[in-house]
Specification:
two-stranded antiparallel ribbon; 4 helices; signal
């Protein structure tokens, strides 16, 4: 049964391909396309050469390159960026801020919390 179904599917595919190739046009969802495969491939190659197509792994778009930097220049730029705080860090590398010199007691924090609650600056404070 599977062999018969497979044969019917292949026959239908071949017949439909032959029908499309009859006049060189294809109809998809009511639209007619008249470009040949060679024309489409040529347009694709032109777009690749112009860097208009982004593709994975094989055939990256061509990017203009400037003068190469030395290792020392790259290391210097990295150190400057680190000192300026411009680099992102992973959670385990995140810089630890030094503790401030002002320390409050628990009692002082509770008093500030109560005062803020009385002034209406807090919506809810659990007792």
């Amino acid at each position: 049964m599977k062999l018969g179904l497979w044969t019917v599917a292949c026959t239908a595919l071949i017949a439909s391909s032959a029908a499309w190739a009859a006049d060189g046009t294809a109809q998809v969802q009511g639209q007619s396309y008249s470009k040949s495969r060679a024309q489409v491939v040529q347009e694709l190659e032109q777009a690749r050469e112009q860097g208009l197509i982004s593709v994975a792994a094989h055939g990256y778009p061509k990017v203009p390159q400037g003068p190469a930097k030395t290792r020392a220049q790259v290391v210097q730029e990295l150190q400057e960026a680190q000192q300026a705080g411009l680099l992102d860090f992973a959670d385990d590398e995140y810089p630890v801020l030094p503790a401030g010199s002002v320390h409050k007691t628990r009692q002082q924090v509770v008093q500030e919390l109560e005062q803020a609650r009385k002034q209406g600056r807090l919506l809810y404070v659990a007792p």
